Amino acid sequence: MRKTLLASGLILASISPAHAASSQSTMSNFSYDYAEARIGISPLTYGAGFSKSIHPNAHIIGSVDTEFDNDWDLALGVGFHAPINNWADITGELKARNVKNKSCFDSSAGKMGMEVNLGIRQWLGPQLEVGGQIGHLNIDSHEKTIGSIYGRFHATELFSIGVTGRFNDVYDDQIMITTRFKF
Question: Over 70: is that where the pLDDT of 108 sits?
Answer without folding.
Answer: yes
